[in-house]
Amino acid sequence: MQRTKIIDLLGSDTPRRQVLVNGWLRTRRDSKTFSFLEVNDGSCLANLQVVANDTLPNYEELRKLTTGSALAVAGDLVASGGKGQRWEVTASAVDILSVAPETYPLQKKRHSDEYLRSIAHLRPRTNKYGALFRIRADTAWAIHRFFRQRGFRWLHSPIITASDCEGAGELFRVTTLPPGDNGGSDPFSKDFFGARANLTVSGQLAAEMLALALGDVYTFGPTFRAENSNTRRHAAEFWMVEPEMAFCDLSGNMDLGEALIKEMSRFVMEECAADLELFSRFVDPGLKSTLAGTIEKPFVRIPYVEAVTILQRSGQRFSFPVEYGSDLQTEHERYLTEVHFKAPVIVYDYPKQIKPFYMRVNNDGQTVAAMDVLVPVIGEIIGGSQREERLDVLEARMQECNIDPSAYEWYLDSRRYGSVIHSGFGMGFERLLMMLTGVANIRDVIPFPRTPGNIAF
């Protein structure tokens, strides 16, 4: 008999005869002549109730089953007389696949997020994290669909690279040299690539090259940053969505970013409703209204100088002073989205001295065509720009930023041969998931988070 997933059984319009379900025991309630077994197979939030009668040959063994034990249940799918469930299974056979000991860490009670991080290999079995990682998987698929429907091509950008896209220097080095071997006078001559190699912080530079050949492309993969930060928004390993578009200016770039956020919000509300309900009830009671507002309201668009003026005149006491020429902090971003505008905000035209070398210099010579998409609670969720397509200006910016152009000759070639205006952005996938679920810590939207001092599991 072919195994059926619980999500398919519970969504059935008519009962079926003889179904086979595999799963894990959540709870067991015993009566004199039968037991109720609540079984979950991870396909959905809901459990399937199994009625095991005392006529089963291994009934006495079933009465000893503990939470976390694995079962294979065969029986009839019938209408349930219990409240809150449409169908149940009257078991004709229950095979015990494994028995969890009494020390199973996940008992039927609420555990703190801090405790569950310490058992990250088991936390997907809880209702909250099972729902979260289903939403993560479904949202990843929806992102691919979003770009596919718009004619984008998916690019697999390098994980190991010699480039530091952001110029920040917070990189993980990749080496085959044994500990203590610095390579002599030429520190990288004996290393695998014969040059310094790092884990990528962004797929953007590679995406630009493909965009200037294929038109519209995107990357969606892991990125790494050796930033010694323990904030709730930062991790050493995270996933980025990075579209790049030829013949597209800053305005078109902002349009795409807004459309992506709105579509993902709409998707989880419509396609992940059962799992989303858990987060609306137990994590963030205002989640649904926030997502609805994100979908319904147009994003506010203001230049950086106006954002600074609003913040300076707000009368708020911020931990970080607000002044022209400094980057916006999370508290500033949240004030703009949650208090002043009560809507997502796109801030654009930043001072060039606080942005990377590849962003297009505006006609004023002081700002660049950069944009950040800010959303309530999270703050910045997208950062992007129109790229500098003029070779002479790009070379001048690299000199200003103390970047050796010889390491980027291949990048400069794209401006020598058929350069066109183009733009793109990066969206942190985990920050998107935080926005969609109301979860406050990035460690809780990644199955196995990598943060300073933590590489368990």
Tell me what you see in this structure.
The relative contact order is 0.11. The two termini are 36 Å apart. The strands form three sheets. Strands 6-10-11-16-15-14-13-12 form an eight-stranded mixed beta sheet. A five-stranded mixed β-barrel has the order 1-2-3-5-4. It has 457 residues and is α+β, with helices and mostly antiparallel strands. Helix content is 30%, strand content 24%. It has 13 helices and 16 strands. The chain has two domains: 6-98, Nucleic acid-binding proteins (OB fold (Dihydrolipoamide Acetyltransferase, E2P), Beta Barrel); 123-444, BirA Bifunctional Protein, domain 2 (2-Layer Sandwich), CATH 3.30.930.
In short:
With 457 residues, the protein is an alpha+beta fold. Helix content is 30%, strand content 24%.
Question: What are the defining features of this structure?
Answer:
OB fold (Dihydrolipoamide Acetyltransferase, E2P); BirA Bifunctional Protein, domain 2; 2 domains; 8-stranded mixed β-sheet; 5-stranded mixed beta barrel; 16 strands
Q: What is the CATH homologous superfamily assignment of the largest domain? A: Bira Bifunctional Protein, Domain 2
Largest sheet: 8 strands, mixed
State the helical fraction.
25-40%
Number of domains: 2
Structural class: alpha+beta
* CATH topology descriptor of the largest domain: BirA Bifunctional Protein, domain 2
